[in-house]
Design goal:
Length: about 250
């Protein structure tokens, strides 16, 4: 079954939750957009609740939460940034769990790009040539941090560093490659699934970077029953199917 039809079919599955009118405010990593929008739409249709989602770089979202931005649920692309929010006393006790996993891929502009063999010392600089390599910010955004970790581990960061264009989040890096403004980019597996304008040419070894894990938690500012219902909905069969269809690994 084609992926777009699979996603549509999964979106019709019941979330098996009671209906209470309320608004849920979610701060989430930009890489979650396609799948999380679909999960939220199904939840809204069944419960009558409203889900408002702000997407951005994980570090940006976390800093906004710690600065007092009103949010009910946080889904970062990094355990470390959830640790920061939890250390600030903003995570509701007993609600944090690991929700999803992801992979890291090298994408090229357009369809049908030639596959690349990724290994220690591979010639990424030669591949990029006079073009650009798009990455999320390598010092603060998880996708960029994971990407740099992998390039350092493979021994090619120094050769390609000067060609890197850094963006505020991973979806912005993906957009540069899709538009042809960067020849290549390093993004999550799920990002490549969501964008028809790029080709996956290589997958980075899982042991070349830290595990990519998306934790989720209810924040202490959450007051509505709808907030807890949506937190629960993220782990239903319907949601798990939508996440998997978009390239995420569903963690149990």
């Amino acid at each position: 079954m084609p992926r777009r039809f699979l996603i549509t079919a999964l979106a019709t599955l019941t979330f098996a939750l009671p209906a209470h009118s309320g608004e849920v405010v979610v701060f989430a990593a930009a890489s979650l957009k396609s799948a999380l929008d679909a999960v939220a739409a199904g939840f809204e249709a069944e419960t009558g609740n409203t889900v408002s989602i702000s997407y951005g770089g994980t570090s940006q979202m976390a800093k906004q939460i710690m600065a007092g931005a009103p949010a009910d649920i946080f889904i970062p692309a990094s355990r470390e940034w959830m640790d920061e929010v939890e250390a600030a006393g903003l995570v509701a006790a007993g609600t944090r769990r690991d929700l999803l996993g992801n992979g890291l891929v090298l994408v090229a502009h357009g369809a049908g790009a030639k596959p690349v063999a990724v290994g220690a010392g591979f010639d990424l600089a030669g591949l990029v040539g006079d073009g650009k390599l798009a990455m999320a910010m390598v010092d603060s955004v998880p996708a960029g941090q994971y990407g740099k970790q992998s390039l350092v581990a493979l021994g090619v960061w120094g050769a390609v560093e000067g060609s890197v264009v850094q963006t505020e989040n991973v979806r912005a890096a993906l957009a540069l490659v899709a538009a042809g403004e960067a020849a290549y980019g390093i993004v999550y597996t799920s990002d490549a699934v969501a964008e028809a304008g790029v080709s996956v040419v290589a997958t980075f070894p899982a042991d070349s970077h830290e595990p990519i894990v998306y934790p989720v938690a209810l924040l202490t500012g959450a007051t509505d029953e709808a907030d807890r219902e949506f937190l629960a909905a993220l782990s239903t069969e319907a949601a798990s199917g939508l996440f998997a269809a978009q390239g995420f690994a569903v963690l149990k």
